[in-house]
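so my prof wants the structure for this chain in the tokens format not the other one, which i didnt know existed until like an hour ago. anyway here's the sequence
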Amino acid sequence: MNTRILAGLLAAGVLAQTLPAQTPQPASAPLPTPSIASAPSAPAAYTLSPEKREKALAYARSRYGLHFVSFFWSVLVLSAIIALRIAPRFRDRAEAVSKRRFGQAAVFVPLLLISQAVIELPTAAYGHHLSLLYEQSIQGWGSWLWDQAKGLLVAVVIAIPLVWLLYAILRKSPRRWWLWFWLALLPILVFLIFVAPLVIDPLFFRFEPLAPEHPELARAIEQVTARAGEHVPPDRMFTMNASEKYNSINAYVTGLGASKRVVVWDTTIAKSTTPQTLEVFGHELGHYVLRHIPKTIAFLWALLFVLLTLGAAILRRVLGRPGRWGIRGLPDWASLPVLLLGLTVAGELATPLISSYSRSQEHQADVFGLEAIHGIVPDSQRAAAEAFQILGETNLADPDPSPFIRFWLYDHPPLAERLRFAAEYDPWSKGEKPRYVR
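here's what i got, hopefully its the right format
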């Protein structure tokens, strides 16, 4: 789940609208799609024209390089903040403004995070430059900067009480702070995931109920959900106006409990046929049905336990001597850049593990999507393979990532693997049982 942390309070209402009266098709009735039915067999491999292949490779190499440059730049920035004793100055300013701990956090945290964000802005700007250069984005620089400002404000609003809580625990229990903070993180993590689609996402995009704008697609989706044995209410299906900022296509599942929903980008609907869009929806439905969000929360919480346990031991050694870099000790506000530096390095080192876990879930969702549309979409394998081909061409997916890049950065299987699997997965003709949808 790139980090746009949540903030603000937004009252959002979803208009309940009724589809035109019509006799629904039974779940077993295939969709009428002559263009798909009469087309040749499914593509068996992800292919690009020579020009587009060269463009995709150049874009991929630039993004890979930017990832590692951004990481090392963040490490350098935080190291400079520590070595130059900038955080102790911010701490002194905060303590001069307020005697209350929460008031100090409300001064110290914005000073630190805004300073860090401003210094790291060039790498973020270069990322946007790449998305414009390779036609993945159409967002102007003014709109992009406004999004960056909103994202920073969200981060600050969330970080103030979180940092205040962390340092309150540090002062109360300097030896077991990592355990108590780890326990406190679970409800916080659950709450943030719950409110994200209600509070955060609407700060950056407009969301509309899917059914009123795309009634035929909504009815087709009802067939897929019925076949999968999972009822996804119409008020849990949304389109996102990605086309105001992006050319790329995507869809995702977000939220938790009452806020859980499936979101399809309007670019996906515009650039895909109904069968292809249904394959994308089936994939996201797989995340929904297979409960990948709560499983991911459990996975990340367990990983945080390991990182906090190791981090606490390392920090005791690094900050065991009061006065180092002007830091009075671990419970001092000025130690926050050291904590952030440790989290930055630990997060990067944990990237391959997180990526591997995510790839496993994405493959499961691919299997689920293929099974969910089988019998509803004519030649479902072809529709799925075509959907992946369109995704790759539009998003300039790397046709041949190196084993290292795949291991370290890929949170989805490489697109060529996904397309090949879609073209070949056919348990029905082999007399085998489907894995999820039977």
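also thought this was worth mentioning. The longest helix spans residues 50-83.
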